[in-house]
Amino acid sequence: MIARLTLRDVVFLAVVAACLLAVSFLVVPLVISLPIPGIRSLAPSPFYGLLLAVALLKVRQPGTLFVVVSLVGLVLLMMAWVMFAVNVIAGALAELIVLAVFRSYQRNEAVLLAAGLYMPLTVLVSLGIGAVVGGPTIAQFLMNPWLIVPVLGATALLSFIGAWAGLRLGQELRVAGVLRA
Question: How far apart are CA 120 and CA 123, in angstroms?
Fold first, then answer.
């Protein structure tokens, strides 16, 4: 359930979503031609981890992650419904997992888990959706887990490194008085 967000929170989350889109639009074209499943999630994953961690440190309410990735998904919906579905489903799954484990974002471990878990979940969700609607091309990749597992592991590693850096950055911004809850 999405908690009550103030207008200031929603504007901040929209700015974070815009930054995530800008990073994606800069980084993903560099790797889009590589025929490796999940590579489009691997490239921006440290940036997503970092920015999502800062967003979750600022707005520590249930539903924050879902709001940010839904805003990103709404922009991506103009390009393809699959990108919207991947973002929203992965965001909902990450949110549900974190809230099932921690019940809120009050602990830094919850922020780290949510920010780090989102991008690896996009790889899994996109493979799942691709298996349903993608046809034989994605089925060929799913038969070769040696292609999927390294990309998934690298995405998780980079995402959690970015989330850890976001935690550190958020704590420094809080000490400096720039990031207030």
Answer: 5
